[in-house]
């Protein structure tokens, strides 16, 4: 970090709005919701969703109650295009749901986007181009008028193609985004949007959507609210416009910025389940919706079985909901503190169970049952402890950050031991069991020595000495990394070709030059059995190989 005085960064300028009205307002009705999980969320995934995964998540979003769903950027890839065509051709879109598609303001992309919509009943065409000073100067090298011209040209083309689609029986709504609105001069953002609105020609019955994205969160939430109120006040055709918000979470305040933006006059919110999205993510619609619910405003979305929603989300995106994620995290309705447990227990005992009775339980702002969840109290590990409690103790007491899938495996093993003993398991006993079960599994396969060398072409050559059922062997192999090279070297041994790698994770244990690294590897045998192994060493390569050896021994591949 730069020492003070800081010259590298500047505070974001305030908006001149001395008579701002939003601080005195409350949110008394839900906004229009638009899920962008299948586009903005999908593009942020290390492995984008397949068409089948997108279809499953689309159906879930419909079940939750979303009436507007951005389904993709059809000009970006064949998978995006194919997914949209399947939705339309297979009549998968309910009559009361409108799909939304995104395109940059470029002629060929707009044309391709309309090709994807052929025969659609209802669609929102979402057009955007970058407008902020840094984008104008650094990326495009264009001035204000040239940037505005891009938006106007694109809108004219959309108007022409939309008219043809409408004549063919489709209903097309137009949405325009001045990308990076949050960092664009307000007068210029207004100028571009006024020009686009004039070309489109909306009416109070057929409104245009002006989406004002905080593409990058650059200010405190109150300044974002000032921007929205200023824009709404100065817009000349406000009754013909739906003002939409699309916040990202770079400063960690996307939920607050969106709530204040709604107080400032916005009508609509774009976001994702659990805040998935580029960099730090989009605004979390689950949190926004349930925040409204706790204030007595029904959000119009159904999260009464939030666990099921989370399961679909995690399966389709391969992302994990953090354990402390508001409402949906595994531990948000868990109390580890004895005083908290006592207060919650007393509150539960005194809670009026009559329908409609006010919820008044300490530490719990919402009744977990309303969203299909339960309150849990975990401060000790015993036969009743959940996998979350076991994982929590391993991290809080010893620094082991276990992969989520490993929570279930270890939790099950620990519960079985606690059940058979009928006694509490102390943290030290849990640690000792973990080390014996995972770290010190050296039979029938034991790693004696390992060395790897990266070749000029990037391939890793590895040599290792292993002991298999008491017999020393020298093995050699090559691969795209140390693990792959070691696996290749196992060919010809009793372990070769009898398993596949499913997942890998690592982290440091402690700080400093003498700190150790921990690696976790999950494998699946050719018989379909899967399990984890763990390794620990000052050298991460050795820890990784030890983790694989542990998993192979635990899998029982050699009796």
List keywords for this structure.
559 residues; alpha/beta; TIM Barrel; Helix Hairpins; Double Stranded RNA Binding Domain; 8-stranded parallel beta barrel; 3-stranded antiparallel beta sheet; 17 helices; 16 strands
Task: Give a quick rundown of the structure.
This protein is α/β, with parallel strands linked by helices and 559 residues long. It contains 17 helices and 16 strands.
Give a verbal description of the structure.
The chain has 559 residues and is an alpha/beta fold. The chain has three domains: 29-317, Alpha-Beta Barrel (TIM Barrel), CATH 3.20.20; 334-426, Helix Hairpins, CATH 1.10.287; 441-555, Double Stranded RNA Binding Domain (2-Layer Sandwich), CATH 3.30.160. It is 39% helix and 20% strand. It has helices at 37-43, 51-64, 78-89, 107-116, 133-140, 144-167, 186-200, 221-234, 254-263, 285-294, 306-317, 338-350, 387-398, 404-421, 427-439, 482-489, 540-555; strands spanning 32-35, 68-72, 98-104, 122-130, 171-179, 208-214, 241-247, 268-271, 334-335, 376-377, 445-454, 460-468, 471-479, 499-509, 516-525, 530-537. Helix 4 runs parallel beside helix 6 (144-167) and helix 6 (144-167) runs parallel beside helix 7 (186-200). The radius of gyration is 28 Å and the shape is globular. The model has no long low-confidence stretch (mean pLDDT 92).
């Amino acid at each position: 970090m730069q020492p003070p005085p800081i010259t590298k960064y500047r505070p974001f300028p305030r908006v001149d709005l001395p008579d701002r009205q939003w601080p005195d307002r409350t949110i008394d009705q839900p906004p229009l919701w638009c899920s962008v999980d299948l586009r903005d969320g999908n593009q942020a995934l290390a492995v984008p969703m397949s068409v089948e995964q997108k279809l499953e998540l689309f159906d879930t979003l419909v079940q939750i109650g979303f009436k507007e769903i951005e389904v993709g950027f059809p000009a970006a890839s064949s998978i995006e295009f194919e997914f949209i065509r399947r939705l339309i051709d297979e009549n998968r879109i309910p009559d009361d749901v409108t799909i939304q598609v995104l395109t940059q303001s470029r002629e060929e992309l707009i044309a391709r986007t309309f090709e994807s919509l052929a025969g659609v009943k209802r669609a929102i065409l979402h057009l955007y181009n970058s407008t902020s000073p840094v984008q104008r100067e650094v990326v495009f090298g264009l001035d204000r008028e040239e940037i505005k011209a891009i938006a106007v040209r694109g809108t004219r083309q959309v108007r022409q193609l939309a008219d043809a689609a409408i004549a063919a029986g489709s209903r097309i709504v137009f949405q325009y985004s001045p990308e990076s609105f949050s960092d664009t001069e307000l007068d210029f953002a207004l100028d571009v949007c006024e020009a686009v609105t004039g070309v489109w020609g909306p009416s109070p019955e057929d409104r245009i959507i002006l989406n004002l994205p905080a593409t990058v969160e650059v200010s405190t939430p109150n300044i974002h609210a000032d921007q929205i109120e200023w824009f709404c006040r100065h817009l000349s055709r406000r009754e013909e416009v739906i003002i939409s918000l699309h916040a990202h979470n770079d400063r960690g305040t996307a939920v607050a910025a969106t709530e204040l933006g709604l107080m400032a006059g916005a009508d609509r919110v774009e976001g994702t389940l659990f805040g998935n999205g580029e960099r730090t993510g989009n605004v979390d619609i689950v949190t926004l919706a349930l925040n409204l619910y706790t204030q007595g405003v029904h959000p119009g979305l159904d999260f009464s079985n939030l666990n099921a929603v989370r399961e679909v989300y995690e399966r389709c995106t391969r992302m994990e909901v953090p354990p402390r994620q508001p409402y949906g995290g595994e531990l948000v309705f868990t109390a580890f503190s004895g005083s908290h447990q006592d207060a919650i227990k007393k509150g539960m005992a005194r809670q009026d169970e009559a329908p409609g009775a006010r919820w008044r339980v300490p530490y719990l702002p919402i009744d977990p049952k309303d969203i299909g969840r339960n309150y849990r109290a975990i401060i000790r590990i015993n036969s009743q402890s959940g996998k979350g409690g076991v994982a929590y103790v391993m991290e809080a007491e010893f620094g082991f950050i276990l992969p989520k899938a490993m929570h279930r495996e270890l939790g099950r093993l620990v519960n079985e031991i606690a059940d058979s003993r009928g006694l509490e398991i102390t943290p030290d006993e849990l640690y000792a069991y973990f080390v014996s079960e995972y770290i010190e599994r050296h039979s029938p396969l034991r790693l004696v020595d390992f060395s790897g060398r990266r070749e000029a072409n990037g391939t890793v050559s590895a040599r290792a000495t292993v002991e298999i059922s008491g017999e020393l062997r020298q093995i050699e192999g090559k691969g795209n990394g140390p693990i792959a090279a070691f696996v290749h070297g196992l060919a010809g041994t009793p372990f070769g070709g009898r398993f596949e790698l499913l997942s890998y994770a690592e982290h440091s244990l402690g700080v400093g030059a003498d700190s150790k690294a921990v690696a976790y590897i999950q494998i699946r045998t050719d018989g379909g059995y899967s399990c984890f192994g763990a390794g620990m060493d000052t050298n991460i390569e050795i820890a990784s190989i030890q983790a694989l050896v542990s998993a192979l021994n635990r899998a029982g591949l050699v009796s």
